[in-house]
Amino acid sequence: MSKNFDLVVIGAGPGGYIAAIRAAQLGLSVACIDAWKTKDGKPAPGGTCTNVGCIPSKALLQSSEHFEHASHHFAEHGISTGKLSIDIAKMLERKDQVVKQNNEGILYLFKKNKVTFFNGLASFSKAVEGGFEVDVAGDKPETLVGKQVIIATGSNARPLPNLPFDEQVVLSNDGALDIANAPKKLAIIGSGVIGLELGSVWRRLGADVTILEGMDKFLPAADEAVAKEAKKAFDKQGLKIELGAKVGEVKTAKTSVTINYTNAKGEEQVLKADKLIVSIGRTANTNGLKPEAVGVQLDERGGVVVDADCRTNVPGIWAVGDVVRGPMLAHKAEEEGVAVAERIVGQHGHVDLALVPYVIYTSPEISWVGRTEQQLKAEGVQYKAGSFPFLANGRARALGDTTGLVKVIADATTDEILGVHIVGPQASELIAEAAVAMAFKASSEDIARICHAHPTLSEVTKEAALAVDKRALNF
Ligand code: FAD
User: Fold this and answer.
1) Where is the active site (predicted)?
2) 153 annotated as belonging to a binding site for a ligand
3) Mean per-residue pLDDT for 370-382?
4) What CATH superfamily is the domain 364-469?
5) Can you give the pLDDT at residue 138?
6) Is the CB of residue 45 less than 8 Å from the CB of residue 139?
7) Is residue 322 lining ligand 1, measured as CB closer than 6 Å?
8) Where in the chain is the domain with CATH 3.30.390.30?
9) Which segments within 190-293 are labelled E, that is strand?
10) Is 155 among the annotated ligand-binding positions?
């Protein structure tokens, strides 16, 4: 016998589980299905983000940053530690514990909000009177009927052609978050967010890290001033980033890998390493979903085609998060999940993709929201820009972390903020002020005139806003 729901959500990553909770808050009967299991077979809702993405990477970034601070910065505070060591097994155990707390937190939230959770792989069966039939191939097979369905099946790491992930030597993010000992030599292909974050973790723990990047420009999506400052900081740390590297043949052995590539000067090079992380992007995932059974249209890359409101071509079926167009970010998936739940009950859910903040959790952190100076130039928009360095901020000096700057870009005529770009301490937290200001269509003058607490890093944002009008006070 099938079980009937107002809404069936497929996938319990940030897009799916948040959509399920919001829909339940709005009074719908909701089922959420997710296939992920822990190594010992328990349900592990939370998706890529919780299990092998945002959360475990931040846990390892935190542990490795503590180690780096203790190794290099405690002495300047008068703290001596003696010979330092790190127990990687313990660090990984802590990371697994953090992940588990998040899995359990989501199960608790489902219970609290009366969302019925099913652990298993979901596939569309057919359209039925007033809805869609979805099969769940779990420990206990089930058939559910949803009047409406949200597809939130996420994405998978993209391998290099002819080089599948073995998670021993050739690693995706899954394996890269679970290396038992810091490799002596670590190669990474791709200097995007994931390559930089995971490269930072293992460099801090002692690996000699080389990142090969095919493009000639470092972080082309970031503002050039920010990308330049970040590259300088990574170079100083010894994180080697080779731009314009064209990867050729990659040979793997049991405990090593050899990468042949051509460098930016056109010279043939060979890089040998103990492990290779391939972080060249992610592809939308609809494996096992059988979207064709109900006629849901996919694009040429396997993603679900949706309109601006996340409607698929089949009325009553929606899709959110990494499986659809737009930035592959957890908070974007969440916003879409909330908006779709609200649209289903006739409300006016809203997501502005132009105001999604981007963050890279390296040291220094990098963040931005809105447009870059190079984008505005290309679009012919008249703008004015102001920057302020953390070096001139009292709190940053007290923290001992003065790398970087905040840059505010505003419309030349109206002064409306068009973009804010940060590289430096706590950039991930500081960007929230900019996102709020831009959502309220604030001017740079608004930020410049709002009282910011002293001494805080946020004063750098205020000073950068003052600098837009050439009246920074402390620099
Ligand atoms: P997912 O989180 O991928 O969840 C999809 C879920 O659907 C999975 O649990 C999967 O098992 C399930 N599923 C798929 N098919 C089926 C099926 N047929 N039946 C049942 N279940 C199914 N983003 C950030 O915003 N900040 C970060 O700091 C960040 N760090 C990251 C670090 C790494 C290493 C990686 C890899 C990614 C990171 N991301 C980060 C990206 C973020 O993880 C994704 O954008 C986010 O998880 C997308 O959410 P989603 O709900 O669309 O999909």
Assistant:
1) 454 (proton acceptor)
2) yes
3) 98
4) FAD/NAD-linked reductase, C-terminal dimerisation domain (3.30.390.30)
5) 82
6) no
7) yes
8) 364-469
9) 208-212, 240-242, 246-252, 257-262, 268-273, 275-278, 282-284
10) yes
Per-residue pLDDT of 309-334, as tens digits, reads 999 999 999 999 999 999 999 999 99
H-state helical runs in 73-192: 88-112, 173-176
Determine the CATH number of domain 158-280.
Answer: 3.50.50.60
| Residue 173 CB–ligand 1 contact under 6 Å | yes
Tell whether ligand 1 has an atom less than 6 A from the beta carbon of residue 424: no
The DSSP bridge partners found for residue 386 are 408
User: What ipTM does this complex have?
Assistant: 0.99
Active-site pick, 66, 72, 73, 454: 454
Closest ligand 1 atom, residue 121 Cα:
19
- Rg of the Cα trace of the chain? 24
* Distance in angstroms between the alpha carbons of the first and the last residue of the chain: 71
Ligand 1 centroid from CA 321, angstroms: 8
Can you give the pLDDT at residue 139?
84
Active site residue 454: yes
CATH 3.50.50.60 in the chain is located at 3-154+285-345, 158-280
| 277 close to ligand 1 (CB < 6 Angstrom) | no
Superfamily holding 3-154+285-345: FAD/NAD(P)-binding domain (3.50.50.60)
With beta carbons less than 8 A apart as the criterion, state whether 37 and 44 touch.
yes
